[in-house]
Write a structure and sequence with these properties.
110 residues; alpha+beta; 4-stranded antiparallel sheet; 4 strands
């Protein structure tokens, strides 16, 4: 993912409500460029520990056919509108945001 721009430590601090040490660790983990589904899940599991999430979960897309594929994997923060780290399986990129906001903004997909 050398072409993608990671959020700054300052942005991660503001969005995730964590200190700069945790935000720097999250940014480092995101920079590792996971390539397989297992590596993506491991990345999210590591971030879940760092930001005190509850686990990694999945929001299915209406476009999913067999198993996962076009939905969102995310670190559960206990509130659907809480800022978290997500992986968009359709666009194949990590996002810092709220999974509910994404689902509501894309009704045809979810």
């Amino acid at each position: 993912m050398a072409n993608r721009k990671l959020p700054s430590v300052k942005t991660l601090c503001a969005r995730l409500g964590c200190d700069s040490t945790i935000a720097g660790a999250v940014r480092y983990v995101l920079s590792k460029d996971p390539r397989t589904d297992l590596e993506i899940n491991d990345t999210l599991e590591t971030i879940s520990v760092l930001i005190h999430g509850y686990c990694v979960e999945y929001v299915a897309s209406r476009q999913d056919t067999h198993g996962r594929g076009r939905g969102l994997e995310y670190v559960n923060m206990g509130d659907t509108y809480a800022q978290t780290i997500l992986y968009d399986c359709l666009t194949k990129r990590f996002i810092c945001g709220s999974w509910s906001d994404i689902v509501e903004s894309q009704p045809a997909r979810f």
